[in-house]
Amino acid sequence: MIDEERVKQMTKMAIYEEGEGKQYVPMTQYFRHDYVGKEMVKSVILGTFAFALFVVIYLSCEMENLMENINSIDLVGFVTGILVKYGIFMAAYLLVTYVVYNVRYSVGRKHVKQFYTHVKKVNKIYEQEEK
Predict the structure, then answer these.
(1) From the CB of residue 111, how many other CB atoms can be counted at a distance below 10 Å?
(2) Which parts of the chain span the membrane according to its record (predicted)?
(3) Count of domains in the chain?
(4) What is d(CA 31, CA 109) in angstroms, rounded to the nearest whole number?
(5) Cβ atoms of 35 and 101 closer than 8 Å
(6) Which domain range does residue 81 map to?
(7) For the CA atoms of the chain, what is the radius of gyration?
(8) 122 pLDDT more than 80
(9) Is the C-alpha dihedral spanning 17, 18, 22, 23 positive or negative?
């Protein structure tokens, strides 16, 4: 005979696994600091790429001005300015990354705990049926 409660719990589990579970379950394979650290490494790479892209776009827009003043430009000051801006950009970007992925991890853990509550209920139902 079919147990309605078991079917309800299993349906909730299947819906979760197909929806939110795809996003949250993989993060449970990591401790919080490992998960956030992995995402911060990705952010360093992507942030560097994005900043380089901004610099290339800026330089291409200012190419005429740069060519006119090529001999009078303080190259050390120019590069130092870019590096300072890169440092500020990366600090802000990594701070945002840290906060976002800490919050995502906390929310994800709560959702996964709810999922495991359904798993425990199904296991109890199976144990009761075996007896």
Answers:
(1) 17
(2) 40-59, 79-101
(3) 1
(4) 10
(5) yes
(6) 4-130
(7) 26
(8) no
(9) negative
